[in-house]
Amino acid sequence: MPKSVTITIPEDILDSARLTIAELKLETALSLYAQGRLSLGKARELAGISLWAFRQVLATRQIPVHVEPADLDADVATLHELGRL
Hints:
Distance between the termini: 44 Å
Largest sheet: none
Mean pLDDT: 93
Low-confidence stretches: none
Helix content: 55-70%
Shape: elongated
Number of helices: 5
Strand content: under 5%
Number of domains: 1
Number of strands: 0
């Protein structure tokens, strides 16, 4: 089991920000993902939600999904093979 770190955040800070702990985790995960500091998988893990749900939040917030050039090339090739491009 991976180690975990505990961060103490005063309750009045969360109250002032009008955030629950789950919302704070999501906001942190989104921010770190948008900065390129966390992968999609690790960001969704931090947020504590499914990959599908995390992708939906990214789309809603208009945060672009990071795609590696090699992955994009492979996806385009697959679409060509399927006759979709």
